[in-house]
Design brief:
Blueprint lengths: L12 E4 L3 E2 L5 E2 L5 E4 L2 E5 L4 E3 L1 E4 L4 E4 L3 E3 L3 E3 L3 E3 L4 E4 L5 E5 L3 E9 L4 E3 L3 E11 L2 E2 L4 E4 L6 E4 L4 E2 L2 E4 L7
Parallel strand pairs: 1-4, 2-5, 3-6, 4-7, 5-8, 6-9, 7-10, 8-11, 9-12, 10-13, 12-14, 13-15, 14-16, 15-17, 16-18, 16-19, 17-20, 18-21
Length: 174
């Protein structure tokens, strides 16, 4: 549990061998900082958590127990994300990248950035894709919304371009 003010210099790396809980006040890492998850654990954002770069190392397992935000890049080096029923919001002021060899799966993803959100690999969103601001560059990969069941696409602004877009619809809608 984080119960103190965490001050880091721009370009710092903070390693988490387990998950952590942010219980009191919003916690924001600068967009030049990297939070590296080196083991298995749960991120519990009782109060808001905004990461700069978020990295999941190989053989690590990160479970989300609430919504989080990322201001820079999402880098998964072969670990496991267990998204639960939570949303990851990408809200950077420049280009952001999602990378995981073999593809990454989110329950909910919100694109609310000024630069494009760029996929280095396939991305699956099992429940809700929200496009608030900014574009999504699929980058010759596949963006899948849903996974054998209908999923929600909510768009206020932005486009998805440069790859394959696949969407599941509920049977009742067809």
């Amino acid at each position: 549990t984080v119960n103190a003010v965490l001050l880091t210099l721009w370009g710092s790396t903070v390693n988490f061998a387990n998950g952590f809980t942010n219980a009191n006040a919003a916690l924001t890492f600068d967009d030049g900082n990297t939070a590296v998850f080196t083991g298995s654990g749960t991120i519990t954002p009782t109060a808001a958590i905004t990461f700069g770069h978020l990295q999941i190392n190989a053989a690590s397992s990160v479970t989300l127990a609430g919504n989080i935000a990322v201001k820079s890049n999402w880098i998964n080096l072969g670990g496991t994300l267990i998204p639960g029923t939570n949303t990851v919001t990408f809200n950077g002021i420049a280009s952001q990248t999602i990378s995981r060899t073999g593809g990454e799966t989110f329950y909910g993803l919100t694109c609310n950035s000024t630069g494009p959100l760029i996929f280095s690999n396939d991305v699956t969103i099992t429940n809700t894709l929200t496009m608030t601001a900014g574009n999504i560059n699929i980058n010759s990969n596949t963006l899948t919304v849903g996974n054998s069941a209908g999923a929600t696409l909510s768009r206020a602004a932005g486009i998805a371009y440069g790859g394959t877009f696949r969407r599941w619809f509920p049977v009742a809608a067809i």
